[in-house]
Amino acid sequence: MKNVFIIISGGTGIYDPKDPDQHDQTWDNFVTPPLLRSARTALHDAKTEDVHWLVHEPAYAERWTSDLSNKKISRLWLLAMQAKT
User: How many other C-beta atoms can be found within 10 angstroms of the C-beta atom of residue 22?
Assistant: First the structure.
């Protein structure tokens, strides 16, 4: 039986255009750093650990809706769409 490695991502806030330099630009700012970090160096031992990533879904759903209505595009979404073409 493998050990469990847990990553927890808290909820995002709604984008505030009044504070663009101090506020996250898209919701994916909260999930990109662990993904980039794991691309360089393993965050866990895949042989002995399973990864579970917990996110606060209501906050991400609200932020996604807000970003779409304000025409803010997630970098991850854009990359995914480019990969499909």
Answer: 7
Q: pTM to 2 decimals?
A: 0.52
The tens digit of pLDDT for each residue in 35-81 reads 777 778 887 888 998 888 888 888 888 887 887 787 776 666 667 77
Burial class of 67 by CB neighbour count within 10 A (0 to 12, 13 to 18, 19+):
buried
Encoded amino acid at 13, one letter: G
For residues 70 and 64, is the Cβ–Cβ distance under 8 A?
no
Rg (CA), the chain: 15
